[in-house]
Design brief:
single chain, 389 residues, 31% strand
Length: 389
Amino acid sequence: MCTKRTASGGRTTGYRLAASVLAACCCTAFPGLAAGVVITTNTVISATNFTLDNQPVEVRGATLTITGEHTFTELLLTNGAVVTHPANEPSGMSLTITGNCTVNAGCRIDANGRGYPATQGPGGAPNANFGEGGGGGYGGTGGRGNRNVPGYTYGSIVTPDQPGSGGANSGGAGGGRIRLIVQDVLTVDGQVVANGNNGTNGGGSGGSIWITTGTWAGTDGVITAHGGNGGSTPCGAGGGGRIAIEYSQTSYAGQVAACGGVLPVNRQGGAGTVYIKDQDEALGTVTISNCGNPGARTDLVEGEEVIDANVVVTGQAVWGVSRQKPFHPVIAGNLTVAADGMISASGQGHPATQGPGGAPNASFGDGGGGGYGGTGGDGGRNVGGTTYG
């Protein structure tokens, strides 16, 4: 959107611009190029508005809100510019840049809190009594609330293309969806972010960032899809989102992370996933890290067990399963579990009294232990479970 000053009453009227008047109203020539646009006022471009397509675009000190698939020949963010997409828009933004894309320091491609709202999405955390619900899940499981389960994991590790999910009750919204294809050089010295929002109750999960580029450059950039924090001690934080970056060559030295929300303590969200691949190499690497904070599990998603990559579990992440699901990853490369990482299925087997070695109930609760490789200990009023398998 650009603005036009009217003669009567000095009012400012917003209106959508046709291509023929775009440059005259709010744009100037793109520096160093024969043609192009510079956006200097907040502008909205819908999925069906191709006014800016197939041109070099600079966003200078303004916010460009864009929906759906668009193609620019160049994209340059300067003077604190922001490129974002509308909230609760599952298609998010999908930008193809046939030349270079530069996100300067102080600028952002920003989908923070632009995913599914509270309780919504594939990993939305259900409402709980007294608002004591869990965090939303996506790449990582949300932190558990005091009175209900969190949101769980979903989506692809290597081609993440979904928004994050919302936390329980008056929870934070999940992070949005960013798809970025840059044919030449992507330089990130600012931020590319799809973090979940903090919640009054459960935190929102991180969203998705999927980047394919020729050269990936930048010194002090930040690329994150973190979960949001929960609102108080009985509520859970959001799980981390998913990031995938493929490149032909790189000199990038900035941050890339998708970690769970860190508050409240003991109810942190689980680590998301970060997949990075050199296009000239056979395998990329999936890093599951929770930035050094213990938190919920990073559940393996059913249907996504085959991982065509190396896998590293680190930074207090716990990779495993919840809800009595099997854990059968098939990894094409190497698996590295660092000293501060863990693979765990603890407490995720058959529930009380169930399973081939389940111990039967007993009067006054004086029952025995479950059995599997060994027989469970007898209780005061009943025997333990037997061995099997």
